[in-house]
Design goal:
Helix content is 61%, strand content 13%. With 87 residues, it is an alpha+beta fold. The protein has 4 helices and 3 strands. It is elongated. β2 and β3 form a beta hairpin. The longest helix is centred in the middle third of the chain and has 28 residues. The relative contact order is 0.10. The protein folds into 2 domains: 40 residues, YefM-like domain (YefM-like fold, 3-Layer(aba) Sandwich), CATH 3.40.1620; 33 residues. Antitoxin component of a type II toxin-antitoxin (TA) system. Belongs to the phD/YefM antitoxin family. This is Antitoxin.
């Protein structure tokens, strides 16, 4: 992980973008008032987003399983489900 100030990034943006994509480096761009930003590769960004979605999905499954354990479920027949789908 690299931390680089804004002025340096401006003069060497390509170099730091290459580090992010070619070397899988995380580049923190430091700015005034701690309004920092991060440069990462699209591949790394997609991995982070996929992990976040998976965590949300697993949390939803956990909540659903807890509802089942508490008996907060409703049984429906196939005919009832088909009727609901056609509404």
């Amino acid at each position: 992980m690299l931390a680089v100030n804004y002025s340096t990034i401006r003069s060497k943006l390509k170099d730091y973008c290459d580090k992010a994509t070619d070397e899988n480096e995380t580049v923190i761009v430091t700015r005034k008032d701690e309004k920092n930003v991060v440069i990462i590769s699209l591949e790394k960004y997609n991995e982070i987003m996929r992990a976040a979605r998976n965590a949300e999905y697993l949390d939803m499954i956990d909540r659903s399983m807890e509802q089942v354990r508490q008996g907060k479920v409703a049984a429906k027949s196939m005919a009832e489900l088909e009727e609901m789908a056609n509404e």
